[in-house]
Design goal:
This protein is of the alpha/beta class. It has one domain: Luciferase-like domain (TIM Barrel), CATH 3.20.20.30. The chain has an eight-stranded parallel barrel with strand order 1-2-3-4-7-8-9-10, surrounded by five helices. A three-stranded antiparallel sheet has the order 6-5-11, covered by helices on one side. The longest helix has 19 residues. It is globular. It starts with a strand and ends in a 25-residue tail after the last strand.
């Protein structure tokens, strides 16, 4: 399992995120994740820069690959705009950009006044949005008339040599099935071997990404208090993360969260941190992205992740193979747009139109429902 660094747009401003990326590359991290939010989860986190501007800065500051974790291409920003933003990012990063997508949270998506639909509709929207994005990445003028989105005479002019892989986030079984069907990879935040096994058994062959957090500080009690002050939302159950609309609502809900409810590894004991990472490797995660919580970034990069960091943190090897590994193929960077699609996800089977102008029949049609039991949380 490769170890990358998780840039948190909720906790840090744009200048500090770029500085962290430089430190991560110098410390030997494999790649970067970056969250995509309009609001932080609470006011204590205190930041929320526009992720596409930060990615532009990252392209000039680091040579590491970058993945959004994750972008919601359905409500706040139309998928045609995401297609352009992601294509530009891939060009700037010379092909080192991956687009992670998910169904999002009301916290970020309600700001335009649009209705926040139920989860089955949100996943249906996500599947159609990915179809729109991939169509525009094929080049030329494109139109789309679907159940949720309309695109007319659109063309993305600046395209990378190869379309970026699209990794899909999911927790519930319906969402995982969508990820296996349409994704070039799977995104999660938990070391859940059953979920990863479902993704693999459903036909998912791309890499499995996961994100986690640590709070590496000399004083364990202070580290636990820091994690609880900044990230108590990590312990919220069920679908609260998807439906609460403002940071104030999250702060109210988090009044029920006590420090002992957090599973984030805290304090100076490296072995405790390694054990937490090992659980992801054992579950079948291919790439794990770690965020350091709180202000002590220097200690994290110098000690936890610096030149003196233990070999155990350089590369974590699974102690066992998770269900579904027997048929697992090596992950490839080639996007799902270039591979055969299942009948249920093809434009023809779903009734959607996504054609160049010469092929466009000019009629509006519906999209196939995707459905999910729980939306993803890797936008953290």
């Amino acid at each position: 399992m490769k170890i990358g660094y998780f840039l948190s747009c909720e906790e840090f401003g744009p200048v500090e995120l770029v500085a962290q990326a430089r430190r991560a590359e110098a410390a030997g991290f494999y790649a970067l994740w970056i969250s995509d939010h309009y609001h932080p989860w609470n006011d204590a986190q205190g930041h929320s820069p526009f992720v596409w501007s930060v990615i532009g800065a990252l392209s000039a500051a680091t040579s590491l690959p970058v993945t959004t974790a994750v972008t919601c291409p359905t409500t706040r920003i139309h998928p045609a705009i995401i297609a352009q933003a992601a294509a530009t990012s891939a060009v700037l990063l010379d092909g080192r950009f991956h687009l992670g997508v998910g169904t999002g949270e009301a916290l970020n998506e309600h700001v335009t006044g649009a209705r926040w639909p139920e989860i089955d509709v949100r996943l249906e929207m996500l599947e159609e949005a990915v179809e729109v994005i991939r169509s525009l990445w094929q080049g030329g003028q494109r139109s789309h008339h679907g159940r949720h989105y309309t695109v007319e005479n659109a063309r993305v002019y600046d395209l990378p040599a190869t379309p970026p892989p699209v990794l899909v986030s999911g927790f519930g079984p319906k969402a995982i099935d969508v990820a296996a069907r349409i994704g070039d990879g799977f995104v999660t935040t938990t070391p859940d071997a059953d979920a990863i096994g479902r993704y693999r058994s459903g036909g998912g062959t791309g890499p499995v990404h996961a994100g986690t957090k640590v709070c590496f500080m000399a004083d364990e009690d202070r580290a636990r208090a820091t994690a609880h002050r900044l990230w108590p939302n990590e312990a919220l159950p069920g679908e609260l993360a998807q439906v609460l609309p403002t940071p104030a609502h999250f702060e109210q809900a988090c009044e029920l969260v006590t420090p002992d409810m957090l599973v984030t590894p805290v304090g100076p004991d490296i072995e405790t941190h390694v054990a937490s990472l090992q659980a992801y490797a054992d579950a079948g995660v291919d790439e794990l992205y770690v965020q350091q919580i709180g202000p002590e970034q220097e200690a994290f990069f110098d000690t936890w992740a610096g030149a003196r960091r233990p070999p155990a943190l350089r590369d974590v090897t699974p102690r066992r193979r998770h269900t579904g590994d027997a048929d697992r193929r090596p992950p490839t960077p080639s996007p799902a747009a270039g591979r055969p699609r299942s009948p249920s996800s093809s434009p023809r089977a779903s009734g959607r139109s996504c054609r160049a102008p010469s092929e466009h029949a000019g009629r509006r049609s519906g999209s196939a429902a995707a459905g999910s039991s729980r939306a993803a949380r890797p936008t953290r």
